[in-house]
Amino acid sequence: MIIPIRCFSCGKVIGSDYRRFESEINQIRSRNREPTSDEISAIMDGLGLERYCCRRMILSHIELIDEIMPFS
Amino acid sequence: MSSTREQKISIMEVRDNFMRFEISNITEGVANALRRTLINDIPKLAIDKVVFRHGQIRDSMGNVFDSSLPLFDEIVAHRIGLIPIKTDSKMNFREECSCEGRGCSLCTVSYNIDKTGPGEVYSGDLVPFTGNVELKPTDPFIPIIKLGPKQALLVTAEATMGTGKTHAKWQVTSGVSFKYHREFKINKDENEGWEKVKNDYPKSVVGETKEFLTITDDYQQRGVMNFINTSTHRSVINQTKPVEIMEDKNRFIFKFETDGSLSAKETIKIALLRLPGRLNILHESIISPD
User: Based on the domain organization, do B152 and B223 belong to the same domain?
Assistant: First the structure.
């Protein structure tokens, strides 16, 4: 749907980190390749996402808000 | 036992929203009480009441917008509530305030969002208008909702003080943990490479006696931890069996971070002030069990 504001498990604010994460991933994709797992890991370290509960919030998120928009 | 010895706090690392410190000569019970106080008994400001304006919304140009949103109002209200807001720790709880629960500038801050689509609404669009208007969201880039064309969000919200006991939106800290102080004890006779280990590590983490070299991973500065994990040292240390892991059950290493509504320093101060109060409640209820 839309990125949750806090990590479900620990309560760290992760809502704003998702957009930064996305833009860095897109930067890599604009060079015509998929980011490697090490690069993804380094981006999340850079965002200060230390624990795996916060990392999965970002990593497993699928942005579906645009699909829902027409049905408001 | 341990309570007879002097208690000591030493701070290892402080950043705005992060702190690591050591308390020695307390029991696990006290350490855990402090941990739980940090999680659920620090008062902070969070939005508690959200009023949506329904029906047609007009902007200053006379364009008409619809108030219906892609998500339910309840979801939006919940999301607005979770946004961390800079907190003045001197503010009162509403039920204990001199205004007797009516809501005044000492216990309440009001916000509004006035945003028209298409586009995204961010936490930075929450504008305080009564009470202490300095108390803005700590992070202006948290997405609240996305608006389609001809949609608008017109909302007023009230923030009050609360604690994490009631709801996670009033929880200041995350990742609160403590562990025992730990040392790796290397037998000099049985580890040839001990001198290399001693020279490579920062002096602050290395201790030495006649027979043993001790290293702690309760590192004093950032980056040392990674250093300990390097494979050369691991191979030196792991060659033979005589590395012993020693835990000192009187020394507790705490670590926590805050969401920015209060600084780490303020948070620990408040926690240490509130902890005796919590223990007094227990004490009184034991004396008079009704």
Answer: no
CATH assignment at residue B137: 2.170.120.12
Domain residues for the domain of B193 are 8-41+174-256
User: Exposed (0-12), middle (13-18) or buried (19+): which is B100, by Cβ within 10 Å?
Assistant: exposed
pTM comes to 0.85
Interface membership of A16 toward B (CB under 8 Å) = yes
Owner of token pair 């028209």: B116
Which residues of chain A lie closer than 8 angstroms to B69, CB-CB?
Answer: 72
Q: Please say whether the beta carbons of B186 and B212 come within 8 A.
A: yes
Helices first, then strands: H and E counts in chain A: 4, 0
- Least CB-CB distance to A11: which of B70, B151, B174? B174
Taking residue B276's Cβ as centre, other Cβ atoms within 10 Å add up to 10
User: What three-state secondary structure class fits B193?
Assistant: coil
ipTM summary value: 0.91
Q: Do A69 and B70 touch (CB under 8 A)?
A: yes
Q: Does residue B24 sit in the same domain as residue B91?
A: no
Per residue in B103-139, pLDDT (tens digit) is 888 999 999 999 997 899 999 999 999 888 899 999 9
**d(C-alpha A62, C-alpha B106), whole Å:** 41
> Residues B141, B205: one domain?
no
**Among the partner residues B68, B146, B175, nearest to A12 by beta-carbon distance:** B175
Q: Which two tokens stand for residue B282?
A: 């227990």
Contact yes or no for B141 and A19 at CB 8 A: yes
Neighbours of B92 (CB within 10 A): 16
